[in-house]
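Here is the promised in-class demo. Please do not try to memorize the tokens; focus on the logic of going from shape to residues.
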């Protein structure tokens, strides 16, 4: 493959690194709106077809095989959590692209003939043996 392909891949890698440097606050997980029934027979949520109380928002994600749930307060925090989750998805996508481009660079470098390395040994004068 021509060196221009390698140069293009290196440029793409640098662009991905630049984009990674702009990543803001991020968090993994899923944000779910929940509606619950309180269980009181006289409450409006007990009527047939009623959606229940809510929404309340739960952010869940796995940590060491266990699901962690955080309650996100209604209001601006919900939109902020959505933005953080979106930023995490962008981060993961950029990392996957960076790995793919880096792999292509490594493959191209393996196929290119290497220049012979210079002999780094010092030319040492032989010592007289004293014979």
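The designed amino acids, position by position:
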């Amino acid at each position: 493959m021509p060196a221009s392909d390698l140069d293009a891949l290196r440029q793409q890698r640098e662009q991905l690194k630049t984009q990674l440097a702009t990543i803001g606050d991020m968090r993994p997980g899923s944000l779910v709106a929940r509606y619950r029934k309180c269980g009181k027979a006289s409450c409006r949520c007990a009527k047939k077809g009623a959606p229940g109380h809510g929404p309340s928002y739960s952010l869940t994600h796995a940590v060491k095989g266990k699901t962690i749930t955080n309650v996100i307060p209604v209001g601006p925090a919900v939109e902020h959590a959505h933005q953080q989750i979106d930023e995490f998805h962008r981060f993961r996508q950029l990392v996957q692209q960076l790995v793919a481009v880096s792999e292509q660079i490594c493959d191209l470098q393996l196929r290119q003939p290497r220049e012979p390395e210079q002999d780094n040994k010092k030319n040492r004068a032989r010592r007289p043996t004293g014979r």
